[in-house]
Give the backbone structure.
Amino acid sequence: MSTLPTDEADRLSEEEQQELIDELERRRSPRGIASLVVIITAIAFSAFQMWLAARGFIFAVTIPGIGQIKLAALQLLQVNAIHVIFALLLAFLLYPPSTGNGPVARRLGRVVPALERRFGAKNPVTRTMRGVRSIVRWLFMDPNRERVTPVDIVCMGIAILAGLYMLTSFDEIRQIRVLGIDSARTIGEFVPALAPVVDVISSLGIALDTMSVAFLLGAAGVLLVLEATRRSLGIYLTLIVVTFIVYAKYGYLIPSDGIISTPFGFGIIVPYIDILWIQPGDWGTIIQNFWYNTENGVFGIPVTVSVQFIYIFILFGAFLEMSGAGQWFIDFAYAVTGKRKGGPAKASVLSSGFMGAISGSSIANTVTTGAFTIPLMKRSGYRSEFAGAVEASASSGGQILPPVMGAAAFLIVEYTTTPYANVIAAAAVPAIVFFFGVWVMVHLEASKAGITQIDESSAIALRPHLRKGWFYLLPITALLYYLIIARLSVARSAWFSIVAIIAVIAVVAVYNDRTKRPLFAGIVGLFLLEFIANLLVGTGLAGLLLGSGGSGQSVYPALAAAAEKLGTIAITISAVTLLVRPSLDTPWLDYDEAVDEGGEATADALSRPSLSENNAYRFGAFVLRSMEHGARTATPVVIAVAAVGIVPGVLSATGLAPNLTTFIKTLAGGSLVLLLIITAIAAIILGMGVPTTATYILLAAVLAPAIIESSSMPLLAAHLFILYFGVIADITPPVAVAAYAASGIAKSDPFSTGVEAFSLSLNKAIVPFAFALTPGLLLLRPTENGEAHIIGLADVLDFGYFVPEVAIPIICLFTGVLALGPTIIGYFYTDVSPSGRALFALTALLLMTPLALFNLSTTLFDVLTPFAVITPPFTELALRAVGAVLFIALVLQNRRSAEEHGSISTPESTTD
C-alpha cells in the first residue's frame, strides 16, 4: 500500500481510478458470465502471445515416453489474424455499441416523444415506433456499460468464423493470392447444406451464389475492424480509414485532367487534384489486399509489429504494474523530491517518468499517478488546473521515455530497420530534456506561488523505501541488459524480462528470515544440477529426464544455458515452497490493489474467502491478473494498428504515395522548416482524439517520405519528429484526453487544464525541430550515404565534430529549456514582465533551435523580397552564442531586480 501522506477523502480508490479510465476510454465493466468470458479471453490472448515470444510460430509439446507432438505450425498471416481476432473479441466485450449518449442516438431518441406529442401515446404509429425503439435498445444499447448486447455476440461470432477460415483453409488463401479472391469456394461449395438458401437469396437479385466465402468473410472482417475502431477509438479515426477505403474504390472518379465539370457548362480547374486520380478497382481486389495480405492492409506491417514487439512489451508493463512496482515508483519519486520546494509536483514529474516504463497509455498513466500526486499538489498550494496540467504533461511523456517508450517506438524499429537499442539511445537526450523542462516549470511555479517544502513528518525516507522494494528495479535492469548488452531481439528481451518479473515476485512471495537460506540453497542447487547436465550431456534437466541428450558442452556454453534457465528455476523452487507452505509471512510482498481485489472477488465467487490469504493463490492471481490486464491494455492498440494499416495499403496499391510526396514537397516550397511545420500541424490536428500509434502510422506513410526526400535528415530523426508531435496531441485542446483525465481528479476545468498542460509541454514541440536540424542531439552522426549511426567512442574523441555538433547543442538545449520556463510561468527570481517573457522566448529559440529560426526567417525574406540570403558559415554557433549572452543578461537582470526588492531569501538554485 502507498505510504504517501495524502488524505483518503482526496485520493481516488482503485475502483474509482478504473471507473475514470473506463469512462474516458468508453469501456464497459461486464458482470457475471460476461466478466468471466472477458477474463478467459484476455488470459488466452496473453498466453498465445507469450508462447510466440518464447517458442515462435510452432506449437508443439513434449510428452515423456512419447516424444514431441506437433499441434500446429502457423504462418505469419495466420498468427496476425489470431492476434487481431482476439483483439476484436475483447473489443466487442469491453466496448459497447452505444450508450445512448452519442449525437445519433440522441436524435433517434427524440422520434418517439415527437410522435407522442403529435399523434398521442396510444396511436398505432406511436406504439409501433415505441416497439421498434425497444428492440433497437435491446440489440444495441448499453447505457450502464455493463451488458453484452446481441449485436456484440453476432460480431464475435463472425470474427471467430473469419479466424477459423484463416486457420482451416490456408491452402485456399494461397490460391487466392495467385488466382484472385473469386477463385475461392462459394457458400454453396463450402457448406452444401446452405446451397438452397443461397439460391433463394440470389433469386432476389443479391448475387450471393457467385460470391466466395473468402470475399464475404474478408469484407465482414474489415467492417468488424472498423466497428471495433469506432467503439474503442472514436469516430474520427474510423472516418479517416473509411475515407481511404472509399477512395480505393471510387478514386477513379476524380478528374484526371484536374477540371471539375459544373452544371453551367464550364469546368473549374482545381490545382493538384489530378494527382489523386487512380485506376478503377473492384471490391474483390480491394478486400483481398485489405484482408489477405501481410505487407499492407489489416494484417500488414503494423499488426506484425504488434505481434512481435508491442504486445509483449505491454504485457511486461502489466506484470510490472501488478507486482506493485507502480506504487513503489510513485513513492520513490516522492521520497526523492518530497523535501524539495514544490516536492509533490516534482514527484509527479518523476513518477510519471517511471510509470512510462510500465504503461504506454497517457490516460492510464495520468490516472494511476495522478490519483496520488494531484491531491498532494493541491494540498501543497498548487492551483487545481496547474496540478492537473503537470500530471497530464508528464504522463504524456511516458511514450517518449526509454527504455520502453510507447507502442509507436516499435513501429519505428520496423519502418526504419533500426535496432531498438539505437532507437532508445537516440530518444534518450530529448526525453530527459522534456522532463527537465517540466521540472523547471513546476519549480518556478512553486517559487512564484510561495510553495515551500513539506513537513519533515510527511516525507518518505529514501533509504528504507529503497530497502523495501529495490528488487522492482531488477526486471528493468534485466531488460536493459538484454537489449543493449546481450543484443537480443526485442521480443526475446521482453520475454526474458517477464520471466525475470515473475521470478523476482515468486522469490519475494516466499522470502522471510526463516525461508531465505533454504530458498536460495534450493535455487543454487538446482542451478548447479542444470549446469552439470548441460556440461555432461548437452541438455538441461528437463531434457535429461525426457531421455534426450548427447555430447556434453564446454564450461561457458553450459553455464550460459543454465543461466538462461535461472528465472524458471527460481519460479519452480518458489512455487513448490508456496504450495507446501501457503501461509508464510511475506513482509516484502506488496501486490497492486487490483491483484488483491481480483483475488478476493474470485475467492468469494468460489465460496472460499479464505483463499485470499493463501500466498500460492495470491501469486496465481498476480500472474493471471497481469495477463488479463495486459490484454485489456493492448486491445485498443491492436485495433488501432489493424485499422490504420489499411491506409498505407491504399497508398501503396493505388500509387498515390509518390504523388502525395511530390505535392507536399511543392506545398512546402523547398523549405525544410515549412515542411516540418506542416507535419507538426498535421500531427496535432490528426492526433486530437486519435491514439499516438495511429497518428504515427498515418503520418509515417504520408509525410515521412517527403521529409526524407527534402533533406539530408537521418531517417530515424524524421520518424522521431513525427512521434513527438503525435504524443503532443494527447494534451492539446480541445481533445486533450490526458488533460481531461487529470481534470477529473483535480476537479478543475478540463479546457483550462488542457491549455496549461500544452504550455508546460511546449518544449516537447520545440525539441523535435532542434534534433531534426541538429542530429547530434539524438546522438546520431550522419554519414556520406545519407544514413546515420549512433555516436561511439571514436566520434566522441573527434573533438572537431563532437564539440560543435553534440556537446554544445546539448548544453544549449538544456539552457534553452531553462529559458522557456520563465516564458511560460512568468517568474525567474522575480516576476517577469511581458517584454521580458518575449526576450526569454527568443533566447530559448536561439539556444534550442537556431537553425529553424534562421531558416524560417530567410524563407520569408526570400518570399517577400527579390533578394536571396546566403547562409554564412558558423551561423548555428553564432546564433547559439547570441542566445547564451542574452540568457545571461536576462538572468542577471532578474536576479538584480529580485535582490533590490528583497525577494531572494536563500541561495537556492532556480532549478533546485
Remarks:
- The chain is about 70% helix and 5% strand.
- Residues 905-912 have pLDDT under 50 and may be disordered.
- The longest helix spans residues 420-449.
